[in-house]
What does this fold into?
Amino acid sequence: MIYLDYNATTPVAPEVAQGVQAYQGEEYGNPSSDYPLGQRAKAAVQRAREQVAALLGCLPEEIVFVSGATEANNWVLKGVCHYHRGKGKHLITTTIEHPAVLNPCLFLLEEGWDVTFVKVDGRGQVDPDDIRRALRPQTTLISVMHANNETGAIQPLAEIGQVAREHNVLLHTDAAQSVGKIPVNVGKLQVDFLTLAGHKLYAPKGIGALYIRSGCHLTPLIHGASQEGGRRAGTENVILDVAMGLACDLVRHRLAEDTAHFQALRDRLHQSLLAGFPALVLNGPERERLPNTLNVSFPGCAGADILAGIPELAASTGAACHGPEVKLSHVLAAMGVPPEVGKGAVRLSLGRQTTVAEVDRAALLILDRVRGLTHRW
It folds into this structure.
């Protein structure tokens, strides 16, 4: 198998798998226990918190471990809106957010909140001035993803953060896709809340983290005992917390190397596909996108048909096809991609294990399949 779907999930890094072995066996203590076994577990969780904080440039106490990005996004949106409901009942997001943001916003709509969904341009990027124009005296929260999972489009978050600061509005970003691929510093981005997903950066599934800037408040999503500084109840999952910390530490030490690797292979793949199919269309910005992400359309083909004929290639499409009908992803639709172009979309995302040989082989397989399909038209 040639795996080019790293934006969907990553394998667990060998260093991470090895580093958690002790906590799957003899180091099984409860971090809330006072005896040495429990205190060693507590120290391991604290070390993991420090590793995540070091990657983001924040304080360890500003990091809360959660089950994943979906929980973190739900917690911020619902928790901030509940805690600050006295200020007003308006929040701002964009039309290209992950369902883990869009669906909580729709839930809040049903609960009487007013939500403004800011549009993006044809490259899939939001204009900070559109965020500014959407602000109201009652605006409680802005939620804009750092990088899009489908196109890799990076949002001008620092500029949006400046807008939020000027108007004293809290800012959240879902950085599940960007952390581990580009530098992410909460201070430079000027965010109050930031979401991480472990399985997007070579940690296991079922673990994530939420950055909460000191002084910011939100109502807990899970009530119970006093774990995580009283912000998220439940006995800490030491194994997964340690894994998350190790994965973040690995990212911090090899980010420049990984970024260069991703971009070189992504561009090689893009040029190979373009040389063999000159009508190829790039979905998303040419420059301001994740170094590992290539979303392209093959007009005259359906992305699902392309991948269905290449069982040895693992990748994603940008449209669901049912006979003559095509339903574009909400991201491509929000960008205004025509159905005849979006129908042929394929997302190819690379990772640490991707090789030159795999990229070259994938290009040959895709082009061969596309030629076979286009000959039918």
